Amino acid sequence: MLAIIGGSGLTQLSNMEIERREVVRTPYGEPSAALAFGRVCGERAVFLARHGFGHTIPPHLVNYRANIWALKEARVSGIVSVASVGGIRADLAPGTLIVPNQIIDYTWGRKSTFFEGGDTPVRHIDFTHPYDEPLRQRLLAAIRRAGDSAVDGGVYATSQGPRLETAAEIDRFERDGCDIVGMTGMPEAALARELELPYAAIGVVVNFAAGRSSSENGIHFDDIEVVLQESMVRVRNVLECLCQI
Ligand code: HPA
Q: Is the separation of the CB atoms in 31 and 24 below 8 Å?
């Protein structure tokens, strides 16, 4: 059973037949929302709204540990994250889908590990390749099956938010080798790895990053909303195909 974590624009999966909702308590507190268990195209799946059902939890306040812990306890086989992002590279225009293969973490002050010492020995994880390659490939196959296309690979800069970046910050991210920028990629991916859950993400480019192209003089939230609405229809189709393969 796959888990889907929906971000901005995807607080519920309209193509999921929900069988039950479960409010889960974890040692780290409550997840962002009740877990929705059900079926997508007949296949079992669980959905979690990262920012809460009413989209009220900002990226830096998401309880990432509770979210990942709850999904582990639900015995999911892997997690697919849906994330809206800004495009840094010129070819990553609004409306582009991208399946990143690398991350740089610029966040701070987030609870980013389950391994907090105490009585237990120090533990490290290998994070050379932060996304699970078989799940990435499955996601890419689902995108093709849905008749859509996506950019295969890219470096996801995770910024702190909730404000958008300055143009100079985006220049810095680009110098660092980043292709897209979002606010929720970390610590989510690392926490999933700590619990040995395969994790992959589908990025939906909803705007050019600050200072780039049509965002040269600012980012317009009305434009983002339009792209979000259009793109999430495509993402729902992709998720249907994903659950079937
Ligand atoms: N920056 C950070 N996060 C985002 C952006 C952006 O430009 N667009 C959507 N999420």
A: yes
Rounded to the nearest angstrom, the distance between the alpha carbon of 209 and the centre of ligand 1 is 7
Sign of CA dihedral 31, 221, 179, 166: negative
- Domain count across the chain: 1
Task: Give the tens place of pLDDT for each residue, 179-221.
Answer: 999 999 999 999 999 999 999 999 999 999 999 999 999 999 9
Q: Average pLDDT in the 143-156 region? A: 97
Tell me the CA–centroid distance for residue 219 and ligand 1, in Å.
10
Q: Is residue 98 a contact partner of residue 92, using CB atoms and an 8 Å limit?
A: yes
Cα–Cα distances in angstroms (integers) from residue 182 to residues 60, 98, 164, in the given order? 12, 12, 9
Q: How many CB atoms lie within 10 A of CB 78?
A: 19
How many angstroms from the chain centroid is the CA of residue 239?
13
Shortest-distance atom of ligand 1 to CA 59: 3
Which domain covers residue 123, as residue numbers? 2-244
pTM over cut 0.70: yes
Cβ count within 10 A of residue 220: 12
Which stretch of DSSP H or E encloses residue 83? strand 78-87
pLDDT score for 12: 81
* CA 159 to ligand 1: nearest atom: 2
CATH number reported for the structural domain that contains residue 157 in this entry: 3.40.50.1580
Written as six digits, the tokens of 193 are: 């790895």
Token representation of residue 220: 């317009």
The candidate with the shortest Cα–Cα distance to 16, out of 34, 38, 35, is 38
